[in-house]
TrEMBL record:
Its EC number is 3.1.3.9. One of its GO terms (biological process) is glucose 6-phosphate metabolic process. This is Glucose-6-phosphatase. GO terms for cellular component: endoplasmic reticulum membrane. The keyword Hydrolase applies.
Length: 339
């Protein structure tokens, strides 16, 4: 693997030197590929166009990110920003590379979570849009456009992750391929209309199961916090090492979103039926609400409280999107029609 890692470092150096003027673009792209964006951005935008597609996006985002965590625990992938120093292979010539505020993620590197979740979630959007265009135009060329854009998005997210030294090229390739496969497989079985007990059991099950797996691996002498120590050691700015990039943050986010999806369908089975104009208004208000929910500062100590609040925050997200905001809009628009 040393040869693969080394070639990846030189590739990242070349990429940074050739495209440094596009640094802000790569930062934006990497934020678009952040798994959190699937919950806070892609899910609400998709939901207000197609309820089933929105539920599918949220379901696949949670499952694919959780599977990514499990893969990382077993594959032990290095990250470029710490491997340069840890490898001891660059004594004669240090690569001229730079870190960024989104570089210092604390989980293992393989496969790329950004690429994997992007590949899975955007497959739902792409296939839905492609089917819609074909049903309206019967044009194979026009319906293929979303798939071309999908591939370009995966490439852009992968390049951005290599550019900021968060991943090696083979990690983003593995993440992208796995994400596409998950998107195709998971989109065939969507838990729309399932009882609340199903989601409660699923949420608590993968939470407890993952914690038991973590404890079991630690009992075998496998330290799952090894990557956190390396991130703190080699990150050029201590404040760039954030608790919300830790593996348990993604786990609690996924479990919270799954329970929230079940609660939202329990409170309002079938969702609110809104015309296009109220839907657009709902989307605008929802986007503002989720923006402020995401910006809420959470106490990082004690860590148990932090993870509990992350869980609760993502239980709320589906309520805002599927129940509270569209319900409020329905109340006022329905009342106005009656008047």
């Amino acid at each position: 693997m040393e040869a693969v890692y080394t070639s990846g470092i030189w590739m990242a150096e070349s990429l940074q030197q050739r495209t440094r003027s596009h640094e802000k673009l790569w930062q934006v792209v990497t934020h678009m590929g952040d798994p959190k964006a699937a919950f806070l951005l892609v899910f609400p935008f998709t939901y207000f166009f197609s309820r089933r597609a929105g539920i599918t996006v949220l379901w696949i985002a949670a499952i694919s990110e959780w599977l990514n965590l499990v893969f990382k625990w077993f594959l032990f992938g290095e990250r470029p920003f710490w491997w340069i120093g840890e490898s001891g292979l660059f004594v004669n010539r240090q690569p001229e590379v730079y870190q960024f505020s989104s570089t210092c993620e604390t989980g293992p590197g393989s496969p790329s979570g950004h690429a994997m979740v992007t590949g899975a979630v955007w497959w739902v959007v792409t296939s839905s849009l492609g089917s819609f265009l074909y049903s309206r135009t019967h044009s194979i060329v026009l319906s293929a456009v979303p798939y071309v854009l999908y591939v370009l998005l995966l490439i852009a997210v992968g390049i951005s992750r290599v550019f900021i030294l968060a991943h090696f090229p083979h990690q983003v390739i593995a993440g992208s391929i796995t994400g596409v496969i998950l998107g195709i497989v998971l989109s065939r079985r969507v838990p729309e209309g399932r009882p609340l007990l199903f989601f409660f059991g699923f949420s608590i099950g993968i939470l407890i199961g993952s914690l038991m797996l973590q404890a079991g691996l630690q009992q075998l002498g496998i330290d799952l916090s090894w990557s956190i120590a390396l991130a703190k050691k080699w990150c050029s700015h201590a404040e760039w090492v954030r608790l919300d990039t830790a593996p348990l943050s993604s786990l609690t986010r996924d479990c919270g979103a799954l329970l929230g999806l079940g609660l939202a369908q329990y409170w309002k089975p079938g969702g609110w039926s809104l015309p296009w104009a109220p839907r657009a208004l709902s989307l605008a208000i929802t986007s503002m609400g989720l923006y402020h929910v995401n910006r809420l500062p959470l106490p990082v100590q004690p860590q148990g409280l932090f993870y509990g609040l992350v869980y609760f925050k993502f239980v709320i997200v589906p309520q805002i999107v599927m129940v509270w905001v569209p319900g409020l809009i329905h109340f006022f628009t329905h009342k106005k029609k009656k008047d």
